[in-house]
Amino acid sequence: MEQAKSALKTVQTTVTNSIKDFIGADKGNKNNEQNSSATKDESTSSETYETTDASKSSGSRPRQLSIRDIPMLENVQEVKKIFNRHLHFTVAKDRDIATSHDYYTTVAYTVRDHLIGRWIRTNQHHFENDEKRVYYFSLEFHMGRALSNCLINLGIEDTVNEALSQMGLNLEELEELEPDAALGNGGLGRLAACFLDSMATLGFAGYGYGLRYDYGIFAQKIQDGYQIEYPDSWLKFGTPWEIGRPEHLIPINFYGKVIDDENGKKKWIDTEIIHAMPYDAPTPGYNNNIVNTLRLWSAKARGEFNFQFFNAGDYIRAVAEESLAENITRVLYPNDNFDEGKILRLKQEYFLVSASLQDIIRRFKNSKIFSNKNKKIDFTYFPEKTAIQLNDTHPALTVAELIRLLIDEENLEWNQAFDITKKVIAFTNHTLLPEALERWPIDMFKKLLPRHFQIITDINSHHLDLVRKKWPDDEERVKRMSIIGGEKQVVNMGYLSVVGSHVVNGVAQLHSNLLKSTIFKDFYELNPEKFQNKTNGITPRRWLLTCNPDLSELISSKIGDDWITDLRELSKLRNYIDNEQFIHDLQQVKLENKKRLVKVLENDFKVKVNPNTMFDIQVKRIHEYKRQLLNCLHVITLYNRIKDNPNIDIVPRTVIFSGKSAPGYPTAKLIIKLICNVARTVSDDPAVGERLKVIFLENYRVSLGMYITIKSF
Asked: Where is the composition biased (Polar residues) (predicted)?
């Protein structure tokens, strides 16, 4: 994202009390839009680790915002006071009748109070400084639990813990009551969540856009070795970590037809309209008072409840429109093994893209640069103020939708709209599998999104003209590179993403190289300057500081705390590679973490494990290319070696699998069944003993992952 790099600079001055407070109450009322908006993306060079916060180009510390006049949880007594206020006036309970969940909700609101002032102030700061904002589009945000993350990033964990302890409550037990936000499934969603954390920590005006799924992908149960899917009712009791924004309800169009009006301009009419309702969740940076926003869209029916049908006794038809409309955000990745599922999946992707782009354009038009009423909206500034990152091909329709909005709604010419679109959009590819590129049948696509098919046809024509110009006598290459067509007559969303972006990256150096030599080889030869590498990383705040406090404390005791925002600092641990005391302490931390995991396995999964065995763990989405099958074959090999030679000298091993298969993916489900059968066979064999144990942990999620991938080492 070379063009974004210059705009995504960190502010080099720490705002202190001696600096002018930019927030005055009168400024806070200037633009109501700022109560719900603020965004930006993390920039990295082609070989940095994006989400490790190592990309501070100026070498400065992350920006700190002034928090003058914002109420603080300065001491234990203040926490207790706010806690009791929320228990009585928000939850409407007293200590005699409050449940454990009531106490969790109360402490969540107490912490949220500490976020709100910083959240509003961050948005006002972005408006006043008119910063370039980066919008991260992803169909998944695998966020995990919010409470523990907020406590760590805000630096109030010890204070809140002590306050609760004095009231006879246990913070760790209350944290366990929070359901994981069911917004993702695999690494793609976890990367998106890590980006949000890193953007806020680095002080970028970062914004995430996703969908607010009612039931996530599903809650997984293992019955007789088979995966059974159930609704993940994470919103059953509501969530204190979101705020609805009905004032920004956005209409989304489907179906209809395209006509030429009296001026020869294309007009999309007779559409079916579904409304997108935004819900905002705060995403705090680490120890810098910055709170960015994750905006999630929920589908709402356009029409009202039909009293005529209801009064006539036709109760199903009375709510049919509402139910069908809101199916768009019921679940993540609906089963697309049949046409209805494919249509719903395509609707989801367009719903996300259209709502988000309309919201971005609204924010751009309300930005400070146009605050003078006599200042005309000028979209030539749009690339200077906006960067959009596509997280895989799911949001590929961003290309066509942004062009549509610029041409049809903002009256730009086609060439200008396409040029702006390319300057704004960057594309991350996650896998080389053809299925991940997404190909939609032309007939289905034209029916659902007729205007977009016209626009993609124009994009393709422009693109193929460039191909023919470079290779004038190579029609085979032209066919290979066409966005539309092919043997199965499809619209290729991966190709659309490449053509409509100014930067394309893989997520590891090998992966990025393979992109250029395999699936996007022709496109690389056409525009080699587009292709970069961005090696994925993870946020150390959640995956080390939060879930492995003992290891974090040991590291900080040797090299200080700077590693929390710059993992390059960990290289200083090389100085202790021969330090016997440090190695001993490190081994002790590892053993204690394994013991904690053993307790979780015994209490939650009724499985007894020896903590002194070697833990061999593979947790990720179940798929043939993820190689759980290969790992299982290795387990079978180990088992056969023990059976063939009962006296074999072998390192005792506990093999742990966890992950979900897509509901419509029978092969992946059979891999789960095989693992469970192998686990039962090994566990029931007394000749094996503790030398080999196999476990499949059901319903993998971020909170479980924090135990089995971190507390095991």
From this structure: 54-63
Cβ partners under 8 Å of residue 364, min gap 6: 382, 385, 386
CA atoms of 54 and 35, how far apart (whole Å): 30
List the CATH number of the domain containing 200: 3.40.50.2000
- Tell me the per-residue pLDDT of 495-550, one tens digit each, with 9 for 90 and over: 999 999 999 999 999 999 999 999 999 999 999 999 999 998 889 999 999 989 99
CB 544 within 8 A of CB 552: yes
What six digits make up the tokens of 124? 């006002």
Q: Within its chain, how far is the Cα of 261 from the centroid? A: 41
Residue 695 parent element (H or E): strand 692-697
In angstroms, rounded to a whole number, what is the distance separating the alpha carbons of residues 340 and 546? 42
Q: Mind listing the pLDDT tens digit for each residue in 173-192?
A: 999 999 999 999 888 999 99
Q: How far apart are CA 90 and CA 106, in angstroms?
A: 8
Asked if 121 and 255 sit in the same domain, the reply is yes
Supply the DSSP symbol for 293.
E
> Which range of residues forms the domain containing residue 639?
578-710
Write down the number of H helices and E strands in the chain: 26, 20
Look at the pTM and tell me if it is higher than 0.85.
yes
Tokens of 240: 């204190």
Whether 538 maps to a domain, the answer reads: no
For the segment 97-123, what is each residue's pLDDT rounded down to a tens digit?
999 999 999 999 999 999 999 999 999
Q: How many domains are contained in the chain?
A: 2
**What's the start-to-end Cα distance of the chain, in Å?**
35
